[in-house]
Target: Fibronectin type-III domain-containing protein
Amino acid sequence: MNGQSVKWNEDGEALEVMEASGDGAAGVVTKDLLGTTTPSRTLGNLHNVRATYVEVSAAPSGTTSVAVQWLLTDSSVSDQVASYIISWSSEGEDGTDSVDNTYSQYTIMDLVPCTTYTITVQPTDVDSAPLGDPGPASASTATQGVLPVSSVTPTAVPSNSHHLEVSWTLSLDIGRCPGYYKVTWSGKQNGEAGIQGTTSYTITDLDTWTTYNVCVDSGDDADNLFGRPKCEEGTTDEDIPGSPPTDIATTSVTEDSLTVQWGPPQIPNGVIVNYKVTWSPDDGTADTTEMTYKITGLLPCSSYTVSVSAVTSKGNGPSGDTSNSTQPAVPGAPGDVIVAMAVDRSDSLDVTWTQAEAPGKCDITSNIVSWSPSSAGVPLDTMTLDPTESYTITGLDPWTTYLVCVRASTLGGDGPDAPCVNMTTDEDVPGPPQNLNVMGSTTPESITVKWDPPSSPNGVISYYSLTWNPDDPSDNVITNDTTYTLTDLLPCTIYTISVSAATSKGSGDPSNITGATQSATPGAPADMTVTMVLDKSDSLDVTWTQPSSTCDITNNTISWLLSNTGDLVDSETIDATESYTIIGLDPWTTYLVCVSASTLAGEGPEGPCVNQTTDEDVPTDPPENLQVKTATPDSIELQWDSPGNPNGVIINYSIMWSPDNGTVDTPLTTYTLTDLQPCTVYTVDVMASTSKGYGPPADILGITQPGADEG
Model:
């Protein structure tokens, strides 16, 4: 059986452990507080059995262990000893263990420091029967050295908010060893205390609900501390608040409510869980977690005192007060409103009512009569009166339905209107029709106008009268509609149109508007001529007479086509005029020329189109397909076709050749050159001509045949 003894090193950070094995050998190792082991030294054999009766000795081997040794006093029974039973006890703690007969020592482990133990060693035989009496001994575990404090726990004392209960633990159990501890605290109060032989302490005379930093250090005495205190914050228990909420004030007042606001108490003495609000004379009460509360359901025009106290888990603190009065309330609506037309006065209405009931103690300070045309919905005017029950409205429009409303007021403001009443004044001549305008698009011959009834009809509209000019005489029509189309008008003409309304009282003032008929497309130009321009084979002169129209002719369009195909060559739109020269035409070409006129309404029809041919010009192209048809020793027969663009009537062809420098004219498209030299190359040019001259030549090489004597 193994045993172990422990003691602290001087620095308090390592352990020296003696370990004994079953063969009696012992060794010493060093262990730090984390359990790391370092071998130190080995001791020799500790037992030597030589006697039969047991003589026991014990001595402390550490703070939690005792080393036990024994000897047999009678060697005659040594061969009977099979084992030894070691027993120990102290203050309710006891233990036992056994070893075989090879042991003469044993270390009792895990004992309480600073404690005296009674120890016995009993030899036994192979049947576990005791041999003789056990050998007694007594020993105490060693005193624990200075141990560092490992943790501190400050705890509030629920029964006393001025106390903190402090407990602490050490790095190891010190058992029954006395110890010295220094407890210090800091916060609103600072203090310290020296504690002997216990690991708890109650700090007193502290502030309620206050956090303190509590530290505990250990040592042999006040002058020999370990020097490594452990600290922890602790907070004393709550109490009822020590002061009322701060800055209690009324922030909002209505006729039936007060809104009160406050700040936290200067001495909360804990967590404020809610606030209690009370008010009188209603004896109302309410709890809230906010620092504002709206008291509702109050009476208008009344003074109230409001008290507010803060509440912790321990109860209510003292209260603070504020006083204020509710606002005046607005009254209800008057009753029995009657509106009647004033006899023989179309601009007046008589109004009567029953006065509204005053709210609470608030007096009716005034009555307000308002009126507006029923169609408007917005009061046209109001009249504020001293408290009364009748009023005559004047200055109204005739035959107009008014919505008349009556309400009462207090210092709190206007109450609601009583049910408003509609009533109509008497008729009169009407005002002018409204919103007279030209409806949609006009045409060249008509204008449609539209209007609304007068804003002040002043009665029932019986008809509308329309006049317009320039017409001679001015036309006049009567209609019951609010639209009318004027017909048989002239295009591009501005008309002034007047519309008036009539009631049984007669016609009122007219509304006027101007409207213009639309532009119409013109007719066709007349008297058109197209003339060849002499010596300008690319031009034609065109003249015409503009069509008659009440609208302005804005432009003319001239177009020209090839007469033989009808294909459009080009067109030109120009500002309004009566002549134009077409240029860029082909010579000696017949064109069909057309002219139209336009107004803002668009283009009118073309007049009768005219064919005309441009003047001649010299041919643009040379004769085509020039070729040598036959050749002899003294002649060359030529043939060709007319130019592709002759630009007139071809009246002649001119033929020139070299090296003879000959020339000849012919109207034909074939010609034979004669009196030529045999075996000779000739360059021949042929040009066509009109009345305007020759065009470009076509050329060819021709070779005469060899003569007879050269054959």
Q: What stands out?
A: The domain at 526-613 is CATH 2.60.40.10 (Immunoglobulin-like).
